[in-house]
Design goal:
Oligomer: heterodimer
Number of strands of chain B: 5
CATH topology of the largest domain in chain B: Rossmann fold
Structural class of chain B: alpha/beta
Radius of gyration of chain B: 18 Å
Distance between the termini of chain B: 17 Å
Largest sheet of chain B: 5 strands, parallel
CATH class of one domain in chain A: Alpha Beta
Strand content of chain A: 15-25%
Number of helices of chain B: 10
Number of strands of chain A: 9
Strand order of the largest sheet of chain B: 2-1-3-4-5
Structural class of chain A: alpha+beta
């Protein structure tokens, strides 16, 4: 589940080669749009945050040296690509969400966060499997620190790729005079990871080279699947955040405190 | 602890692989026993680093840097000690359960157990109950079986494996320890595992307790 995420970062630019002009993507029938060569950036600070070092607690110079060494080679180990599909929201009863094609998510967090949205975009990004294989190889050879850092870089790279695709979705929504919500992934925010199977029905994941195991594990593992709501900017801006009602206080993806 | 051993331990703590190697060679040159260097300098230093990690004085990367440095020293001693001398605490079979392909966390546990003096048989990922059982039959000296799962959808495989151990008449031959992001102590009790470990250092300490070699 480590590769599924629900970050709210929107910063990384996307230089994807979208075969379809986002302005032309007006159909909400779930057509899968592919994006190749998504730009990915991972910094030392990204890694330090991932491995739980705060600005007040910098790691040793030796650890920093290992991080820099791994950062100098990660770009050769990733190939970021992604795909998305826009669908109409056909039902939202406050506890579940139904998309066009009869795809029904039993997810209160989506129902809450997408309140008032008319569409949803499902997306999948991956950075390929080379970096996870190299991390495992290093780890199995006893180079634990290098394997651990490279694995962390892979996770950050997948997040960066997701940020890039999400930025592309903002453009798509903007061309429709819409805005997008934060992104949500199965396995987070109380959304049952088993619904990953439904999410994969909403998009042709094979086009981006990602498959799903029976246990809902995405392959390559450094992949992220998610959904964003799309709606009038004013509606999206006022959409509540599920974190306000979630009782998982230790959740690493928490975006705001629980409302008492 | 001699001054040289203190220096070796300090170099392990700070992750200075080259210094560890140099000091281990010096100790051997002056006639020290390889086993003493291993136990009193290297393993002792890693235990201390593990305690600092538990006390949140250091983070996992520093622990791993120290583990790398310890390995540099062990590699020098291995040919002199022979494999068996290093495996002082016993054999542990470990693997990520069927349907789950996450291996970084499991490998970290393997590494910490190995640095902590155990012989590790790492079956990798996607390990079926049958494979766990076959490995136990092939390695009857095994004292502990460790299972990892990173998905709520694969956690039930831990229970399935424990039930398979019972059916095969092997459950009372080994202690079972489980771990992984979604796994909890309550889940360990629910499926009748012997222990749950929240991280790699805890796993090493708990496995030592399970085999009666408490710190």
């Amino acid at each position: 589940m480590a590769s599924n995420t629900a970050s709210d970062k929107l910063s990384a630019p996307c230089s994807g080669n979208c075969p379809v002009d986002p302005a032309e993507v007006t159909s909400d029938n779930g057509m899968t749009i592919l994006l190749d060569n998504i730009s990915v950036t991972v910094t030392r600070d990204d890694i330090l945050e991932r491995i739980e070092h705060s600005p007040e607690r910098r790691p040793s110079e030796r650890v920093l040296s290992h991080i820099d060494s791994c950062l100098s080679r990660y770009q050769g180990l990733i190939s970021a690509r992604g795909a998305y599909a826009v669908r109409t929201i056909e039902g939202n009863d406050g506890r579940s969400l139904t998309l066009s094609g009869g795809i029904h998510f039993d997810a209160w967090n989506l129902a809450l966060a997408f309140r008032g949205c008319t569409n949803a975009a499902v997306f999948i990004v991956t950075i390929g499997d080379a970096i996870e294989q190299e991390a495992s190889r290093l780890m199995n050879q006893g180079h634990g620190i290098q394997g651990y850092i490279l694995d962390a870089i892979g996770s950050c790279a997948a997040e960066s790729a997701a940020d890039g695709l999400q930025a592309e979705l903002e453009k798509v929504a903007g061309n429709r005079n819409q805005a997008i919500t934060l992104r949500y992934s199965p396995g987070y925010c109380g959304w049952d990871i088993v619904e990953q199977k439904l999410l994969f029905q909403a998009i042709d994941a094979s086009r981006v080279g990602v498959s799903l195991t029976d246990s809902c594990l995405m392959l390559p593992r450094k992949s992220i699947s998610a959904i964003v709501g799309m709606g009038e900017p004013g509606v999206v801006a006022e959409a509540p955040c599920p974190c306000e009602q979630c009782d998982n206080d230790s959740c690493p993806a928490r975006r705001m405190p629980r409302r008492e | 602890m001699t001054t040289n051993y203190e220096n070796i331990a300090e170099a392990v703590r700070t992750g200075e692989e080259d210094v560890v190697q140099k000091l281990v060679h010096q100790a051997l040159d002056r006639g020290d026993s390889p086993q003493a260097i291993l136990d009193e300098a290297l393993i002792s230093a890693m235990d201390e680093v593990g305690q600092l990690f538990e006390q949140e004085e250091i983070f996992l990367p520093e622990l791993l840097v120290a583990a790398n440095a310890m390995k540099a020293g062990v590699e020098i001693l291995k040919p002199l000690l022979g494999e068996d001398a290093i495996k002082s605490y016993g054999t542990v079979i470990i693997g990520t359960v069927q349907g789950d392909l996450h291996d970084i966390g499991k490998s970290l546990v393997s590494m910490m157990l190995e640095r902590g003096g155990f012989k590790i048989i790492d079956l990798g990922t996607d390990v079926s109950p049958e494979n766990f059982i076959q490995s136990l039959k092939d390695n009857p000296e095994t004292k502990v079986l460790g299972m990892s799962a990173l998905l709520t959808t694969t956690m039930p495989e831990m229970k399935t494996t424990i039930e398979a151990l019972e059916k095969a008449g092997l459950r009372d031959k080994v202690k079972v320890i489980i771990g992984g992001a979604p796994v909890t102590n309550a889940f360990a009790q629910e499926i009748a595992a012997d222990a749950y470990a929240p991280d790699a250092v805890a796993a090493k300490n708990i496995v030592r307790q399970l085999v009666g070699e408490e710190d």
